[in-house]
Amino acid sequence: MKKKRNKWIAFLLALAFGYLGLHRFYLRQNGLGILYVALALTGISLILGLIDAIAFFFMSYDRFNKKYNKQWYDKGYRHPRRFPLRSQNKKKNIESAEESLTELKRQGILHFKAYELEEAKEFFQRALEAQPDDIALHFNLACTNALLENKEDAWIHLQSAVELGFDDKEKIDTHPALAFLRIQTDWNEKRREWDQKRKGLPDPSQRPRPLFQQLGALSRAREKGILTENEFEQKRQQLLRPTADDSPPTESRDSK
């Protein structure tokens, strides 16, 4: 196997000798390296080298390895200080019974903090399949989807967290990851709905299933042919537009 290339060495070469294309030779891109040398007298390669250096600096380890260390990446290489060595089939390993729910959550949070949002979403969703009533997972998925600007999924998981008992109003109103939702035109309306729900304080045993589970049941009914596509869409829209009479959450649990 070819020797693994280091992100920071590539960054330093691009920063110091980018105009000569040394970082491209280091990354086994000899054709590009020769092009940089040819453009050295024009000053273009100097600009290109600086651009490459900036790109390397902000590039995640996983993205760098996927692009420049493909053989290592395909064999499961991850950043050694943050992620364990994984098998070639990452999904199979995630689904393995040996991987605990706690580990799935931990990996999701690590990816989230590293701003590797698609990976964080995948781990949180896998964990949610095993524990669908986990308030923290719903809140974390709401934050992740909001950062990805997946508005509808973010709403679904945030509402599910509220329906399950998440009542930290300050966190909902100030958490940086939810900023995308707070600039939406229907934010104030949804906040009023949630506040009205809390005032009812019904018996927790009478609380309906969270939105996430209700939507899942609708999807399964559509797949089995119980609902037509039009019926599914109508019921789905009804669920996404909750009324003030819906049962409110009554508990407060910790989240990320």
Structure in words:
63% of the residues lie in helices and 0% in strands. With 256 residues, it is mainly α. Among the domains are: 68 residues, no CATH class; 109 residues, no CATH class. α10 runs antiparallel to α11 and α15 runs antiparallel to α16. It is elongated and about 70 Å long. The two termini are 41 Å apart.
Task: Set down the secondary structure blueprint.
Blueprint: H1 7-17, H2 22-26, H3 30-38, H4 44-58, H5 61-68, H6 70-74, H7 90-95, H8 101-113, H9 117-130, H10 135-147, H11 151-164, H12 169-174, H13 179-182, H14 187-200, H15 211-223, H16 229-240
Task: Jot down its keywords.
single chain, 256 residues, mainly alpha, 63% helix, 0% strand
Describe the structure in brief.
With 256 residues, the protein is mainly alpha-helical. The protein has helices at residues 7-17, 22-26, 30-38, 44-58, 61-68, 70-74, 90-95, 101-113, 117-130, 135-147, 151-164, 169-174, 179-182, 187-200, 211-223, 229-240.
Helix content: 55-70%
Shape call: elongated
Secondary-structure element order, N to C: HHHHHHHHHHHHHHHH
Which residues form runs of ≥5 with pLDDT under 50? Answer: 80-89, 201-206, 243-256
What percent of residues are in strands?
under 5%
Oligomer: single chain
Structural class computed from helices and strand pairing: mainly alpha
By DSSP, the count of extended strands is 0
* Average pLDDT taken over every residue: 76
Task: Report the span from N to C terminus.
Answer: 41 Å
Rg value: 24 Å
Q: What does the largest sheet look like?
A: none
- DSSP helix count? 16
